[in-house]
Amino acid sequence: MRRDHPWWLALVIGVLAFVTSGALAQASPQLDLPKVQVRAGMYLIQAQVASTPRQREIGLMYRTDLPSSEGMLFVFERPEVQCFWMKNTPLALSIAFIAEDGRIVNLSEMTPMSEQSHCSREPVRFVLEMNQAWFSKKRIEPGFILISSMFNK
User: What's the topology of domain 35-137?
Assistant: First the structure.
């Protein structure tokens, strides 16, 4: 540190560098999560699994495309009411709130980049995000049972 600058200036510069580098690191999509198959009747979904708090926090943020038979399955430790929003998510998505046995509790259509909350109507352990209208196009409604090794049989 140079003597002609106050000590706090070096501290501020260091903090700004740390915050900026963290912000830049967060601005990229997570594409390397493990995958699991989810069967919805005759349809097979390849779902990335977001199971840690950090993975769930990032979710599909920053993704600009999602193949039609792919999605993201959010896995929680125990059933609770779950709420999701679309901050930093440019994709239009549909969301399914899923009970431990694979039953779809409720569905919702989500608007890109919105901070509007979409919540489960009862405690759930799983949430599946797919491209917008995926469930309605396949005539999948609340009460439908999804099949996966992740769900209790």
Answer: Jelly Rolls (2.60.120)
